[in-house]
Write a structure and sequence with these properties.
single chain, 98 residues, elongated
């Protein structure tokens, strides 16, 4: 068995790809989405933020995520109230220009 760095890196990326696939799935259970919303990798959190079936309480929690990709995904999620999406849009624009 090969355990060199390329092998390990590939395994890690496959793990993240699986998590992202689960996070995007509209049939994923809320408790699993809640756990994935706390993942260390921004792309997993972004997938949760973009899932239209993510419960509102999880979406609200993600509004304080520091990653702009997560914020952008939230802006396009129809499950987040319009006023919250507008506020996020303003915050993201200020981060880019400020």
């Amino acid at each position: 068995m090969r355990w060199g760095l390329p092998y390990v890196a590939n395994e890690v990326m496959m793990e993240y790809a699986k998590k992202i696939q689960i996070a995007r799935n509209p049939d994923s259970p809320p408790d699993l989405l809640k756990k994935l919303a706390e993942d260390n990798y921004w792309a997993v959190r972004m997938a949760v933020a973009g899932n239209p079936h993510t419960p509102l309480e999880i979406l609200i929690r993600l509004t304080i995520d520091p990653d702009s990709n997560v914020q952008k995904a939230l802006q396009s999620n129809p499950g987040l109230p319009t006023n919250t999406r507008r506020r996020l849009g303003t915050q993201v624009r200020h981060k880019r220009t400020g």
